[in-house]
Amino acid sequence: MTEEKETKKKIEIIENSLGRKFPSYIEGYGEVIPFQGAWSNLYLKKKPTTLSLGSEIRPQDKMCSTLEEALKKCKVFNGMTVSFHHHLREGDGIVNLTMKALKEMGVKGIKLAPSALFNVHSGLVDYLNDGTIETVLGSMNGSIGVQVSLGKMQGVGVLRSHGGRVRSIVQDDMHIDLAVIGAPTADNYGNANGIDGKSACGPLAYSNIDSKLADKVIIVTDNLVPYPASPISISQVNVDYVVEVESIGDPNKIVSGTLRIVRKEPLITISNNTAAVVEHSGLMKEGFNFQAGAGSISLLTVERIGEMMKKTGVKAGWVNGGTTSLIVDLFRQDYVKKLTTCQAFDLVSVESLRNDKNHLEINIDEYANICNKGCLVNLLDIVVLGATEVDVDFNVNVNTHSDGYLKHGIGGHQDTAAGAKLTIITVPLARRDNPIIIDSVTTVTTPGECIDVVVTEDGIAVNPLRPKLEKMLKEAGLPVMDIHELKELAEKKAGKGYVKPETKERIVAVIEWRDGSVIDVVREVVPKEKK
Q1: CA separation for the pair 230, 76 (Å, rounded)
Q2: Rounded to the nearest 5 degrees, what angle is found at the Cα of 288, between the Cα atoms of 287 and 289?
Q3: C-alpha angle 493/495/496, rounded to 5°?
Q4: Residue 367 to residue 341: CA distance in whole angstroms
Q5: How far apart are CA 36 and CA 489, in angstroms?
Q6: Residue 88: alpha-carbon gap to chain centroid
Q7: Which neighbouring-strand residues pair with 319?
Q8: Which of 375, 388, 456, 389 lies closest to 418 in space, CA to CA?
Q9: What pTM was computed for the model?
Q10: Most buried of the four, 35, 59, 174, 344, by CB within 10 Å?
């Protein structure tokens, strides 16, 4: 009997600690380690991989006239894993440029390992169909996620948190053959940063680990400067080749629809309730720190927190981001002493990182890797996060919608929720005719044990594991109620209960917890019109 047949013979259906069931071995993914709790595998560490050393090229020969030349020198091959960063978000031009070149070179079966994909990458759907891309090992936002949900990808996708991605690279769960790094500024020896140049996007935090551990590294820049480029986000010691192109992307499209404040109900009420939870949590005191997401509710909440800080005189020690102009304004008014940034969400934040003292760039290893000796998320006092769904056990879904389609990545959701002293989830009770508080989420992204409070427009639910916090919020007069009551209100607003999407048995994507265990899977969706 062959080894493959032996493996298939041993496959069984296993269940993780949240009751989610899947095969013990998933073809295209491998052996499954079932999730057993948010902190259960904290010390279950494999030996880290080492830095990628050595090169056959002479030190002075890093410049290539075209991207194609650099790719050829990297000896690209079928089935290779190629990584990218997403700091330019909807303005990114490097992923499409590189994949077009690889396709023209006839490379097949690529394992695409971006830190995230966006709608600007929708053209990659064609590469899923023709076999250029075998699988996506990273966040799939928008149209790519929809196509994967419909079974249009040959392989099995893997979604990891920002910190989980770093962990997977460090522990060689995801070995990167080639990292292509779009750099707004670089010199001819490979030193690069993201704060200068016409395409300045802020940090290059996502590609920091890729540059260190990928077998080959190409820097692509549209602002080649005399040696040495400074400051240095990506170091020359990790770079094989440098290519100058006309444009790496459009920084004006860093700000996408999810990064704009929408001042309407129920968002305003939810943000007011959230700010009240922060105020009465006992954590908002001199030197506190926090992180908020980039959705409208989070942005409105930051605005309200800023107003409270100005009213009370309480100042934050530091704030982490995904940094926005709202946070920069508080920083420049001295209500925040220091900013740490691993992603700039607007051009004001890019400019601040370039010019303001005490605004620091941190990489994703420093931010959220569970397997290093101390990441920033462990020090967070408060984090405000969103969700597509929340269930009565406080489990949170951010990856799929209620229709089962995969439309979002994990980002730092798992990492910050597990690390912060106070994790707040903000959601409206219903979106269109879908209740958002339900019995059991379509897909588990972050386990309920990491969630402290769920805030909606009509009420606030506190995790029963946090009785002291619940008492404090009730005594402050906040509208605290049981999560089951919120579920009933959600169904009334939606006009119906949760309808489970129809799916096939085929697993199209695996959702990993930040330690590498499998917290859930996404199965191929049966389109409603084709039932």
Answers
A1: 30
A2: 120
A3: 120
A4: 9
A5: 32
A6: 14
A7: 290, 339
A8: 375
A9: 0.94
A10: 344
What is the tens place of the pLDDT at every residue in 67-81? 999 999 999 999 999
End-to-end CA distance of the chain: 40
Amino acid at position 79, single letter: G
- Per residue of the chain (531 residues), what is the pLDDT tens digit? 344 444 455 899 999 999 999 999 999 999 999 999 999 876 565 666 766 665 565 557 899 999 999 999 999 999 999 999 999 999 999 999 999 999 999 999 999 999 999 999 999 999 999 999 999 999 988 889 999 999 999 999 999 999 999 999 999 999 999 999 999 999 999 999 999 999 999 999 999 999 999 999 999 999 999 999 999 999 999 999 999 999 999 999 998 655 667 889 999 999 999 999 999 999 999 999 999 877 889 999 999 999 999 999 999 999 999 999 999 999 999 999 999 999 999 999 999 999 999 999 999 999 999 999 999 999 999 999 999 999 999 999 999 999 999 999 999 999 999 999 999 999 999 999 999 999 999 999 999 999 999 999 999 999 999 999 999 999 999 999 999 999 999 999 999 999 999 999 999 999 999 999 999 999 999 998 644
Q: Residue for token digits 């493959």?
A: 4
Q: What is the DSSP string of 462-524?
A: E-TT-HHHHHHHHHTT--B--HHHHHHHHHHHHTS---PPPEEEEEEEEEE-TTS-EEEEEEE
Helices and strands in the chain: count of H runs, count of E runs: 15, 31
Q: Which amino acid is at 476?
A: A
User: Any idea which residue has 């010199």 for tokens?
Assistant: 187
Q: In 10 A of CB 486, how many CB atoms?
A: 24
Contact 428, 400 (CB under 8 A): no
- Unique residue bearing structure tokens 């109900």: 265
Tokens representing 257?
């629809």
User: How many other C-beta atoms lie within 10 A of the C-beta of residue 248?
Assistant: 26
Helix 325-332, helix 296-312: angle, nearest 10: 10
**Phi, psi of 64, rounded to the nearest 5 degrees:** -120, 145
Of 189, 188, 192, 228, nearest to 85 by C-alpha is: 192
Name the phi and psi angles at 520, rounded to 5.
Answer: -170, 175
Q: Which of 117, 124, 21 is CA-nearest to residue 505?
A: 21
The domains located in the chain, with CATH, are 59-253 (3.40.1080.10), 257-500 (3.40.1080.10)
Residue written as token pair 């909807």: 90
Per-residue tokens: 403: 């229709």
Looking at the DSSP bridge assignments, the partners of residue 328 are none
Pairing of strands 336-344, 316-323: parallel
